[in-house]
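Entry type: protein chain
Record version: 2
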Amino acid sequence: MGGMPLNDMPWWRWRANVRSALHMLSDARFHEECWLAGADGYGDVTDAVYRLVEDTWLDNWSAEKYVGTIFRDSGEAALVDVAVLRVLRIMHQVGPDAPVSAYLNHHGWPEAVRAAREAHVRLAAADGEDPDEPPRPLEALQIMTGAR
């Protein structure tokens, strides 16, 4: 997310967290090479889901509420809503403390990945970034957003 304009959206830090989560959730190769392999620095599925909904409360209301602050338009918001619903449905079924394999083996996981990918591609393109770059470690997100 190095190319993302930092002053473009009023709540850009929240956008950065949502984008990071969607990016990780949308990349099947990343799931195998990082999450299943237990690579340090990327968190796990539960961490990504919490990053997606933690500050935004997208588990309680529509992303449409954030058009103009986190999301540029209703199209972005609609794609994010679909991804959130798909991923949360799986999380509620397998449990937040389930191993990565429980998510990846869930019958609905491919659809959740596809929805996250659609949202990720839309947001990355709007921010002038290549959606096919591999996800960055969480440390890069923390540096960019000034989070601790």
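Comment: The chain has a mean pLDDT of 92.
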